[in-house]
Predict the structure of Protein RodZ, contains Xre-like HTH and DUF4115 domains.
Amino acid sequence: MEIGQKLREAREEQNLSLESLQETTKIQKRYLEAIEQGNFKILPGTFYARAFIKEYATAVGLDPNTLLEEYKAELPQTEEESTAQYSHIHRSRKDNQPAKNTTVFSFIPTVIVVLLVIGIFFVVWLFLQGSFSEESTKPAEKDDNEVIRDTDDGSQENEQTEDDGSGQDNEAGDESGSEDENADSQAEQSDDPQPVLTVEEEGTGSPPESTLTLENAVDDVQVTIEANGDSWLDVENGDGEVLFSNPVTPEDSPIELDLSSFDRVWFNVGSAPALDITIDGVPLEYPVNPEEEVFQKIWINLNKASEQSS
């Protein structure tokens, strides 16, 4: 018996239709039909076959791991190969970076010492220059309020004029006004809450389904999706309305969606290592290690700052 036939028989024993199974697994009906027919070529990527079959098996009451082990010769193996290739590329990038950075870092201590010595000499020079300048100007100092007048006999006499200090008061007032304006500006910036993405519940099982909350979200929440490899993405609102459902490739990136009118959204990620998601300027970090679970489901609650303040 083929794996598709076994899954179909299990579904019929549970009296489940493909439509109800689609609602449970969030896998489109045409992909469920393809699995039952053993036609894995029309799936969004052959490496999704295992993830979709595990979801199907769980929904109809079968052990997904036992089922995959029994029919492993029948299933495509590209998921493991893709994961291995991604891990190899990831390790290669890490291995190459130290070789490039070692040469650069070897010069840094020398540069720092040279700059430090130059800085010390410069500070000493400035100090000496200031001392010489102060000593040379002392004999020429005279009171700003002193006025020299000629007398009738040809001699000179000095008079002290009175200073009401209005000029200094004005300067002090200007400086205090500038400081007050800067303090008000900094206070306004600090009072503006920043969006924060927190994990409410880390998903378990396969695939894991996690719940996150975006606090202090802006009114016009935007999500940006960028792919560094082939992946699949479904996005729905809290009422089950489909906002996006397509394969995602680097050529399609970036993809932007407007979530302004929703309080809750759901992401069905086919290949987490290949997909970067940013919500309201905050990068989404997958609650479960994407290298261990490439297929993940995530709920995100959007708590907007304007609603919280009101």
In short: The mean pLDDT is 78.
